[in-house]
Design a protein that fits this description.
It is a single chain. By secondary structure, the protein is α/β, with parallel strands linked by helices. The chain is about 60% helix and about 10% strand. The longest helix is centred in the first third of the chain and has 34 residues, at about 1-35. The radius of gyration is 23 Å and the shape is elongated. The N and C termini lie far apart (about 60 Å).
Length: about 260
Amino acid sequence: MITIKKHMSILKNSYIYFIIGLISIIYYSYINIAFGGLAFDEFFLCLGICFILYGFIKNKIKKKYLENIIIKLTIITIVAIFIIGEALMILYPKSDITNQCDYLIVLGAAVKKNGPSLTLRARLNSAIEYLDKTKDDCFIVVSGGKGSDEKTSEAQAMKEYLVDKNINPSKIILEDKSTNTFENFKYSREKIEKHSSSSIKDLQIKVVTTDFHSLRSSVLAKRNEYTNVTFYSSKSKLAFIPVYYTREFFALLKTILIY
């Protein structure tokens, strides 16, 4: 009787890993079928497979006490760091409308054949929303270069979108050299300081990006000596949140370690 209960308990614990693994694989499949996939979505496929495999071998590992302890401590440490990182990203202020700015920087994202991607359109709409709400008469820096698979620079596509939404083109400044977030701030700073004849440290800057990207953007802005920075960010599409925030966690770690 005790042996049967023990086996049932082992199977029950294994099912938890199988269920988590299956959910992860289903989510990966959903993103690919419904939306054609996202960068980094393969992580959830790999994660799901790892959970299922671990469900099969965990009882064998348990017999090896030292290996079991090392694996558990490693997993606990990784999960703890991940939770802290995610909490910081979620809680970081990203909807400031109380402080007006001298320059509003809109960070670029992918441009598709028919214009700005869903993510980029959301950022541009948030910029327009901020301007409508605050009546801020700031200059707008649209920042983003041309990717290898893009017909035009992100900056140019953003300007065209904003002008089409009745934003005064004379208020828009193009920064079309950057290829990543660090360069967004680096080259935008050059444009702003030249345009204003002032140091970036003396100017009020507001950044428009996507919610998950705000914390890392703040870190990179400070690396480029922006001292007065606030954010007004767009919200991620609900279905994309797991991919976006997981991917951003690793990008944040890379930023902290490299920049």
